[in-house]
Amino acid sequence: MATVQGIINAAFNKIGLLVIATTKSDKALVSLNNMLSSWSAEGLVVPYRTSENFSLVVGQSSYTIGASGEFNTVRPLEIISAYIRDSSNSDHSVAVTMTQQQYADIVDKTISTRPGRLYYDPQYALGKIYFESKPATVETLYLISEKAITEFASLTAAVVLPDYYKEALVYNLAIRLALDE
Question: What value does the CA radius of gyration of the chain take, rounded to a whole number of Å?
């Protein structure tokens, strides 16, 4: 698994620097994060797919998702699919096709049963997941979602992305670093 430092080292190697001082790596991390922010601002959000799971709370039909949300993770751009795993390890599909209007049209949102549909509102900074009903038991929600590459917290952070993003990160960072040299 690649680290941020590995991406930075590869970018420096592309411009001919083989020995990198810590201060250069710290500045390169800022450049890498600025590049990712710039890509997002230009509409070049680079998505990747991920699978995660979260515990549902009995009687709670909506959840925030994102950094510091009830589902603490990177905020999804889109939820592709979902299912709920019960205590017997059986999986139950959850339709992700509910629209905002369909959710608003549900007359009684207090019914307690296993949710079968959800509506995802990708608000910023926290997205919101709404179920058509309240979970009756503690079960696990599995989500497959698309997320944007976000800023990296440190040089030692793992780069958990498909390998085909590595070249874009390395070469574009090398261009930025070369301009600073």
Answer: 20
> What pTM was computed for the model?
0.74
| Cβ-contact 61, 133 below 8 angstroms | yes
Report the SS3 class of residue 78: strand
* Alpha-carbon distances, residue 129 vs 43, 50, 84, 181 (angstroms): 24, 17, 14, 46
Rounded Cα–Cα distance for residues 56 and 170 (Å): 39
β strands within 75-155, DSSP E: 76-85, 91-94, 118-121, 127-131, 140-148
Amino acid at 142: Y
**pLDDT tens, 38-80?**
887 676 766 778 899 999 999 999 999 999 999 999 899 999 9
- Residue 31 near residue 152, CB atoms below 8 Å: no
